[in-house]
Amino acid sequence: MNNTLKQTPTTLWKCGKCGGELQRGSVKASYLGNDFVVEELKCLNCGLVLITEELALGKMFEVEQSLEDK
Ligand SMILES: [Zn+2]
After folding, report:
1. Is 15 among the domain residues?
2. How many structural domains compose the chain?
3. Residue 21 Cα, ligand 1 centroid: separation in angstroms?
4. In angstroms, what is the span from residue 22 Cα to ligand 1's centroid?
5. DSSP strand E in 1-70: where?
6. For residues 64 and 70, which has the higher predicted lDDT (pLDDT)?
7. In a domain, 40, yes or no
8. Which of 5, 15, 46, 60 is most buried by a 10 A CB count?
9. In whole angstroms, what is the distance from residue 55 CA to residue 49 CA?
């Protein structure tokens, strides 16, 4: 039998606050008066949102760019 169907070796994210499980989901964020939705990891236990620096910086940059265009 083929037994290769194992759990994908993904990084298990845990909440740094309570140690709860983090799940991907849409999170509403606000920056410079603009609301936007980002897909981020959110703690199922305490609701803490883990915004990865990379994504946050990228998104913030986009927002700043779009604001400057106006
Ligand atoms: Zn938590």
Report:
1. no
2. 1
3. 7
4. 8
5. 22-31, 34-43, 49-50
6. 64
7. yes
8. 15
9. 13
